[in-house]
Design goal:
By secondary structure, the chain is an alpha/beta fold. The chain has helices at residues 28-40, 55-63, 81-95, 111-118, 123-132, 146-154, 171-182, 201-209, 223-234, 241-254, 274-278, 280-286, 289-293, 295-304, 312-316, 323-346, and strands at 3-5, 12-14, 18-19, 45-47, 71-76, 100-105, 136-142, 160-164, 186-190, 214-216. Bound molecules: iron/sulfur cluster (2 copies).
């Protein structure tokens, strides 16, 4: 496996990282087997989060007895000093390590969030203190919102930024990448498969590897998936003329039904978190069934069911998405899955 250096952190990592969201869906032993296979194949960058339920503990288990160097990256979505300190302790314990290589402030997607994480004595300062104590080596940020991500990079306080980048949603990520390079901030690409919209792994990975300073972290659920991704990463990356044409074809086919999570459609007159509600299909593919039919994901669908069809959001969406129709499809899908889940739990 080829390697790269993450921004100016000095961390040398495999050219492709491991995204640890999907292993939550597996049983313990299967999840550990997937992580171990990644390590055997030379993947040395593992990215998880406090929010990914069992993921950190499974990584911790997989690392037992593994003596080669691995770069561990995790995140907290807490916005309080106490919360971040508690999450950091949990992560260290779950992964059974004394140091986390990269600790990221997770999903900082509004300017109020950014202000909160950077407030004196707040989340960022807690991470810096942990760095002084040797429990964290580097600090990064993750965001889904381009304006906030851009501002975060400009602050000069983060060593890495994680942002969605794939060949379907590429313009904001490419713009952010240029800024990150200018500020010497490492760029980690989340959603290399556009949340499951791209099913051609070769195109998705080769596309991202064209960018020397991007580290893609595909979410991996099965051993066969990481074997395929590693095979692609070890081969020639150059996209052929036919492959470029295929990328264009997929782009134009999916473009008018794909939410970029830019939130320009807000505010919704009925208080619906539109981009979260539209991500339902992606979440169904990646999350345990119980998680998508209960809690915050279900809340978004319950709110979406209250859409009044006023159409204001569609006037604001720069991609002209048929938001009302898409919300309605997601709500139907949610209700069907919820009913199935309830039936299986009754029996
Ligand atoms: S059409 Fe529905 S989702 Fe869009 S702004 Fe109106 S209530 Fe909100
Ligand atoms: S529906 Fe349109 S405006 Fe709203 S988040 Fe998605 S892409 Fe952006």
């Amino acid at each position: 496996m080829r390697s790269t250096t993450l921004g100016t952190t000095g961390l040398t990592i495999s050219r492709i990282g491991f995204g640890a969201i999907p292993i939550q869906r597996l049983g313990d032993n299967d999840a550990v087997a997937v992580v171990k296979r990644c390590l055997e194949l030379g993947v040395t960058y593992l990215d998880t989060a406090n929010a990914y339920t069992t993921s950190e503990a499974r990584i911790g288990r997989a690392l037992q007895g593994w003596s080669k160097r691995v770069v561990l990256s995790t995140k907290t979505q807490s916005r309080t000093a106490e919360g971040v300190a508690a999450h950091l302790e949990q992560s260290l314990k779950a992964m059974r390590v004394d140091t986390i290589d990269l600790y990221q402030l997770h999903n900082v997607s509004t300017f109020a969030d950014l202000e909160e994480v950077l407030a004196p004595g707040g989340p960022y300062d807690v991470v810096k203190k942990a760095m002084g104590e040797g429990r964290v080596k580097h600090v990064g940020i993750t965001s889904h919102q381009i304006d906030v991500a851009r501002e975060s990079v400009k602050t000069g306080r983060f060593e890495t930024v994680m942002y969605p980048l794939n060949f379907i949603v590429h313009e904001p990520g490419e713009e952010l990448l240029a800024l990150a390079e200018q500020h010497e901030v490492g760029f980690i690409a989340m959603k290399p498969f556009a949340g499951g919209m791209i099913d051609n792994a070769s195109l998705a990975i080769k596309y991202l590897l064209q960018y020397a300073n991007v580290v893609p972290i595909p979410g991996i659920e099965r051993i066969a998936e990481i074997e395929e991704v590693v095979r692609i990463a070890e081969g020639p990356w150059e996209l052929t003329v036919d492959e470029r044409a295929e990328i264009e074809r997929i782009r134009s086919e999916t473009g008018h039904r794909f939410c970029r999570r830019c939130d320009y459609c807000q505010p919704c007159t009925a208080g619906i978190p539109i981009s979260v509600a539209l991500a339902f299909t992606t979440m169904v593919r990646r999350m345990p069934r119980e998680t998508v039919v209960t809690g915050w994901i279900a809340d978004a669908q319950e709110k979406a069911a209250g859409c009044t069809s006023c159409g204001d959001c569609e006037e604001r969406c720069p991609y002209n998405l048929p938001i009302r129709e898409m919300l309605s499809e997601n709500v139907d899908n949610y209700r069907r899955l919820k009913e199935e889940w309830q039936t299986s739990h009754r029996g």
